[in-house]
Amino acid sequence: GENVEQHPSTLSVQEGDSAVIKCTYSDSASNYFPWYKQELGKRPQLIIDIRSNVGEKKDQRIAVTLNKTAKHFSLHITETQPEDSAVYFCAASLYGNNRLAFGKGNQVVVIP
Amino acid sequence: DAGVTQSPTHLIKTRGQQVTLRCSPKSGHDTVSWYQQALGQGPQFIFQYYEEEERQRGNFPDRFSGHQFPNYSSELNVNALLLGDSALYLCASSYGTFYNEQFFGPGTRLTVL
Prior knowledge:
The structure holds 2 protein chains of 2 kinds. Chain A has strands spanning 4-7, 10-14, 19-25, 32-38, 45-51, 56-59, 62-67, 72-77, 86-92, 101-102, 106-111. By secondary structure, chain A is mostly beta strands. In chain A, the strands form 2 sheets. In chain A, strands 2, 4, 5, 9, 10 and 11 form a 6-stranded mixed β-sheet that branches. Chain A has a 5-stranded antiparallel β-sheet with strand order 1-3-8-7-6, with no helix packed on it. Chain B is mostly beta strands. Helices cover 0% and strands 50% of the residues of chain B. Chain B is built from no helices and 11 strands. In chain B, strand 4 and strand 5 (44-50) form a beta hairpin. The radius of gyration of chain B is 13 Å and the shape is globular. The termini of chain B are far apart.
């Protein structure tokens, strides 16, 4: 099955700086890649997703890039704010499959 | 617009017991997937229900079973509980099995003693 890995496991950034989280996947057939944000004690929330026919997608301060050849995708957060502190999970699935394979998560800490 | 809801919030059981967790999908959604999230890990797919049938299953033993009702709500049942079953159980809903966007409920924290 699909195996998703995330790096780094913990990331500390100064408020206002950018944060980048990278994920790799193993199954070249995967073509849907969502990112979830999970605050302590709360549900995972979908923040952005990308399909394999697109190389980049932006939504305000958040962007995701996809490199299908290298089988990796990245989450970019610009102008980080304290409320961006959370665990971020990447996932992958086949489009139309709805079975998400998650990475282990990245703890992002934004230092005021 | 009601989001995904789950009950109960917390549950404490002892080894060998059985447990039932419940999930109501987001309004307009008809597909429910269940995930197990161990502490410090990402969610792991258990199974998915659509049209009252189990459509996909992850690498979980038969002790894990489920059901979907005509109103699209779902139950997760775990028999013969083990200590290792202690985790946050999340349900996610989506529309059909083709569109991937899944929205998660708040989860049920299960502790097995």
